[in-house]
Design brief:
The protein is α+β, with helices and mostly antiparallel strands. The protein contains 7 helices and 5 strands, in the order E-H-E-H-H-E-E-H-H-H-H-E. It has a 5-stranded antiparallel β-sheet with strand order 2-1-5-4-3. Helix 4 packs across helix 7 and helix 5 packs across helix 7.
């Protein structure tokens, strides 16, 4: 089973509407990806903040769970949004390479360049969220394969 993932920016109180959406990236600014789960996001959080994995993971409890569609929404903490928003180009490359080398990404076979591109896209989204005073949300929906 794989995950369809939309990472979007929106007003703080839009999480329920995001959870009820079939395709959040069509309604809010964001990116679409596959198989970015809470573990992978918490790993990025650890790389950028220095928090332990357990501490980071505890910050990613769902803020919304759809009873009908099975979508789960987590909110990316402001601390991670700020760290992503202010990474320079060299730091983006470094974080992307480090993230690609983690067990979470290596075990699922993510190519380094794809992970680096993901980090760049997340940073651009974080910059937009930071400048607009918006929050970042991750919409995850399991796909039956």
């Amino acid at each position: 089973m794989s995950l369809l993932v939309n990472i979007v920016i929106a007003d703080e109180d839009d999480f329920e509407a995001i959870g009820e959406s079939q395709h959040p990236v069509e309604e809010w600014s964001g990116i679409q990806a596959r198989d970015i789960d809470t573990t992978k996001i918490a790993t990025l959080h650890c790389l950028l903040t220095g928090d332990s994995f357990e501490e980071a993971l505890s910050r990613y409890e769902p803020v919304y769970v759809s009873a009908e569609e099975g979508a789960i929404i987590i909110r990316i903490p402001d601390e991670l949004v700020e760290k992503l928003a202010y990474l320079d180009e060299d730091a983006l490359d470094s974080v992307g390479e480090e993230l690609a080398a983690t067990e979470e990404f290596e075990l699922t076979g993510w190519p380094t360049q794809e992970v680096m591109t993901l980090v760049e896209e997340l940073a651009a989204l974080a910059q937009q969220a930071d400048s607009n005073g918006e929050a970042m949300f991750v919409w995850m929906h399991r796909l039956l394969t």
